[in-house]
Write a structure and sequence with these properties.
By secondary structure, the protein is mainly beta. About 10% of the residues lie in helices and about 45% in strands. A six-stranded antiparallel beta sheet has the order 1-9-5-11-3-2, covered by helices on one side. The chain is globular.
Amino acid sequence: MVVDSLAHHSLYHGLSPRLAKALTHLAETDFTQVEVGTYPLDGKDIFVIVNDYHTQPKETEPFEVHQQYIDVQFVVSGEEEFGYLPLANQTPLAPYHQEHDFTEFDYESNKEDAAFIPLKAGMFALFFPGDMHMPGTLDTEVPVRKVVIKVKI
């Protein structure tokens, strides 16, 4: 997991060419002007999801893990916290959902091991396979515009 300001995105370009393309796209696009939706950037290898929502209490949300994609999550406006902990021997709520590339884990049995980290406008987080994360939480309800770029590993 990585958390940083978009101003430093070039520091992570060496991790993979696809990740470099995703981060460059974030830096060069005014996402305040992009409609909510899903957009291909490089077919199914890199695609962009623009979403508007309100934060939720962490007690109501599951943790998630991906196997096929890196999540690049960028807050355009608003702020949130995300939960994070490494995947170890946790028990999933249901089997892996291959079509949508996620496994969910409940909050209650993982809350003691999780850290909750602020993600403010202009910041991004990279979640790699094995990074359990819970995006979109905050103790108070706040409107958020967030871009998630899925990068095939």
